């Protein structure tokens, strides 16, 4: 019998497993799919028109791990020392507009401000203090929302004050008057839309503050050479080096699917985890509302996306939604359970920065998420094609094929995404704290059972911190170990 069984091999589950194995515990990770990684996997991209021999790869879920470089877990784990190469685009994200203009968030704050013209100084005032303290901002954003983050108290206080001020300003329509240009407004709204929630809101503004700080930090919003699955391989290698194991093709749908262990950690959506528990614990987890859904589109193109503004090609992430008013209308339609005629779409063209992502004949994968109502069965490719053609004339002429995964089918690839909810539950200011519900300890969800997924603080992202927070509590409360093990690579 293992000391610990972890259900789900996404980054949070593996972060917990690595931490516990390094503390000397026997750890088994169960994965329902045939491949490890959950939302952090890179697999062959094959379709009726694209043969496996082309050698294309697709990132199954996450593609741009913006949170990883400043995550306290990954900072100590040290991905670079383990052979994981992060590629940092000069432009973290872009927001194309209808008349060929675009808002561009360069990693260089000064260059961003210069491009924004009359809004440049305002951008500096709002995001400059955050960008000056990316690690402190990350420590606050990725905390367990129950304790003071580790770090220099003065620097944390400065970062916290800047975080609060920017969130308050951007959290309502009153913030619109702060800006003079559509480029600046749309840059903020595009980042806010990562929450797949009503806009504007304090939760969306907090997300924009956090991700905005990272965008102008030393690591920007990076891509991973060869695909994001390299992060998973590094985590699994460390786990196995410390005696842990991962068992694939082992779905856990009922309590009878769980092997005995002193402790079980569940790295899955709270709604899915609820099915493994008895009352009253089941009802407590089931109470977490589902978030919006995504329809995943894996395009295969014969050339780079032909953005109307050529500078957009240099952005690792592109937010396709148009103006602030158009993005708000689209996101609010999704929240109301309706499909937007012009959906919000996130796009990344990794081959623009990583030649290894090009196929044998020069074809390239383009990753896209479209925001849709949870559980949507609709293939929204026609609407997404139209959005991309709108800002990249000639896009349709380059499309060789597209593999579409509707929101309703996302859980077939990752059980933690019911209805296409990739955020682990509704994103609101309350639910970022009371996640999965109001509790002093949000991780201990039943005797001997801990939640370590995006449904627990700090919420969504490739950061591993829900796993680390849960593992810390398991070590202390179940095994009497009060000191976390080192996560640094062996020398």
From TrEMBL:
<dbReference type="Pfam" id="PF13450">
    <property type="entry name" value="NAD_binding_8"/>
</dbReference>
<protein>
    <submittedName>
        <fullName>NAD(P)/FAD-dependent oxidoreductase</fullName>
    </submittedName>
</protein>
<dbReference type="InterPro" id="IPR036188">
    <property type="entry name" value="FAD/NAD-bd_sf"/>
</dbReference>
């Amino acid at each position: 019998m293992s000391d610990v069984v972890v259900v789900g091999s996404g980054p949070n589950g593996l972060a917990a497993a690595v931490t516990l194995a390094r503390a000397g515990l026997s750890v088994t990770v169960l994965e329902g799919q045939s491949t490890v990684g959950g939302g952090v996997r890179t697999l062959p991209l094959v379709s009726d028109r694209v043969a496996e021999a082309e050698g294309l790869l697709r990132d199954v879920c996450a593609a741009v791990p913006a949170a990883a470089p400043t995550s306290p877990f990954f900072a100590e784990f040290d991905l670079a020392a383990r052979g994981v190469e992060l590629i940092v685009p000069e432009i973290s994200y872009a927001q194309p507009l209808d008349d060929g203009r675009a808002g561009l968030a360069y990693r260089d704050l000064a260059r961003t401000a210069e491009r924004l013209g009359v809004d440049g100084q305002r951008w500096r005032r709002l995001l400059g203090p955050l960008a000056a303290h990316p690690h402190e901002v990350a420590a606050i954003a990725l905390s367990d929302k129950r304790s003071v983050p580790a770090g220099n108290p003065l620097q944390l206080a400065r970062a916290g004050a800047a975080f609060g001020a920017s969130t308050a300003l951007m959290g309502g329509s009153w913030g619109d008057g702060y800006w003079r240009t559509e480029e600046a407004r749309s840059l903020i709204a595009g980042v806010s839309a990562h929450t797949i929630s009503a806009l504007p809101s304090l939760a969306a503004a907090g997300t924009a503050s956090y991700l905005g700080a990272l965008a102008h930090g030393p690591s920007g919003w990076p891509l991973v050479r060869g695909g994001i699955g390299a992060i998973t391989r590094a985590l699994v290698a460390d786990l196995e080096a410390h005696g842990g194991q991962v068992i694939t093709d082992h779905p856990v749908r009922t309590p009878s699917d769980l092997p005995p262990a002193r402790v079980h950690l569940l790295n899955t959506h709270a709604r899915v985890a609820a099915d493994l528990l008895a009352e009253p614990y089941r009802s407590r987890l089931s109470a977490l509302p589902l978030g919006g859904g995504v329809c995943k589109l894996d395009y295969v193109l014969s050339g780079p996306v032909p953005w109307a503004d050529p500078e957009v090609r240099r952005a690792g992430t592109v937010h396709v939604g148009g103006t602030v008013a158009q993005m708000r209308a689209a996101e609010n339609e999704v929240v109301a359970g309706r499909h937007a005629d012009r959906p919000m779409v996130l796009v990344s063209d990794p081959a623009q920065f990583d030649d290894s992502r090009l196929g044998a004949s020069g074809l390239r994968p383009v990753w896209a998420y479209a925001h849709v109502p949870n559980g949507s069965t609709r293939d929204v490719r026609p609407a997404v094609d139209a959005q991309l053609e709108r800002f990249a004339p000639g896009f349709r002429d380059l499309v060789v094929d597209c593999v579409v995964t509707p929101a309703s089918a996302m859980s077939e690839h990752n059980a933690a995404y019911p209805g296409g909810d990739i955020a682990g539950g509704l994103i609101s200011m309350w639910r970022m704290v009371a996640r999965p519900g109001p509790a002093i300890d949000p991780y201990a969800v039943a005797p001997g059972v801990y939640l370590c997924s995006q449904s627990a603080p700090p919420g969504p992202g490739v950061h591993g911190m829900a796993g680390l927070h849960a593992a810390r509590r398991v070590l202390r409360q179940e095994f009497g170990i009060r000191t976390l093990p080192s996560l640094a690579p062996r020398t």
